[in-house]
Amino acid sequence: MRVLVTGATGFVGGHLVPALLAADHDVSVLVRDRAGYDGPDDVTVFEGDLLEPGSFDDALDGVEAAYYLVHSMRAGPDYAERDRRAASNFVAAADDAGVERVLYLGGLGEERDRLSEHLKSRREVEHILADADFALTSLRAAIIVGDGSASFEMVRQLAVRLPVMVTPQWVDTPCQPIAIDDVVTYLVRVLDVPELAGRTVEIGGPEVMSYKEVMARTAEIVTGRRPVIVPVPVLTPKLSAYWVNLVTDVPRSVAHPLILGLKNAVVVQDDSVREYLPIELTPFETAVRRAVGDGADTPEPKSVAAGER
Ligand SMILES: NC(=O)c1ccc[n+]([C@@H]2O[C@H](COP(=O)([O-])OP(=O)(O)OC[C@H]3O[C@@H](n4cnc5c(N)ncnc54)[C@H](OP(=O)(O)O)[C@@H]3O)[C@@H](O)[C@H]2O)c1
């Protein structure tokens, strides 16, 4: 099948492209800077910017299915407005080109639970993409465990660098981390299931746990010790974002919206995708071990607690 991947320079897109090639698809990618794209040789590269209508139409010519894996959080606080515009521009161009199917990967979380700005924006993009002529499959996931995932990187660096953490109470919120390998398997195989065109599917790993547990287990796997995590009611998300900024190298523009999202439970409610794709899910520990590799880039733990900063 002729498929286009947008967001191919990103974490998910970077893992997806080789998997689509391995599944014998004819793969093209849309990137903003051709010179900065280091993908496989047998991919057709188109340069264009979703914020500039007309700059990416050629990428959609003859495409049967497109993956929408774009978000602008790294570009700063007005990401929601940019993501809204990018999705609208994409819908107009994809409908003009007659694209039949689009697959989008967004976030889990219940709209009735007052989603954070970040999750609300991801859901808004989903709604914009759903209001198109093409059939949209929206996949929703919580934190994706893999090397290069901004959310997992934040967890990993906090867990490894801080033996003692004073955290907001929201670390008790439940989530359902999923391995990048499983996300990629779903994204590739959903293409073979026509019944999933036009549907929203929720995907998650085999274990539901609190963010506290995610951090503690990650630290244990990487360093062999479990950190002490002390949730306190007085620590606001804003303050947390400051110390995450001090402790990790995840940019504040990314860390802040992600921390605000910790208040929302992100757990699969409807696992009907498994009727069609009963893939074997990667255990959390295996996913973490794959993500950190030999741990060679693991920084030395710092000896101060988050609350002391
Ligand atoms: N990572 C996670 O834990 C996680 C969890 C659940 C869901 N998701 C969802 O998965 C999707 C992909 O996330 P990710 O982690 O792979 O993100 P990412 O690494 O930040 O990648 C974002 C991609 O969007 C591209 N992009 C941004 N603005 C663009 C524009 N105007 N035109 C064209 N391309 C543009 C970027 O290209 P440049 O290189 O040019 O900047 C980059 O390739 C998102 O929808 C996200 O919500 C991720």
From TrEMBL:
It comes from Halorientalis persicus. Pfam families: NAD_binding_10 (PF13460). Residues 7-141 form the NAD(P)-binding domain. SUPFAM superfamilies: NAD(P)-binding Rossmann-fold domains. GO terms for cellular component: cytoplasm. The lineage of its organism: Archaea, Methanobacteriati, Methanobacteriota, Stenosarchaea group, Halobacteria. This is Uncharacterized conserved protein YbjT, contains NAD(P)-binding and DUF2867 domains. GO terms for molecular function: aldehyde dehydrogenase (NAD+) activity. Transmembrane segments: none annotated. InterPro entries: NAD(P)-bd_dom (IPR016040), NAD(P)-bd_dom_sf (IPR036291), NAD(P)-dependent_oxidoreduct (IPR051783). It comes from the Archaea.
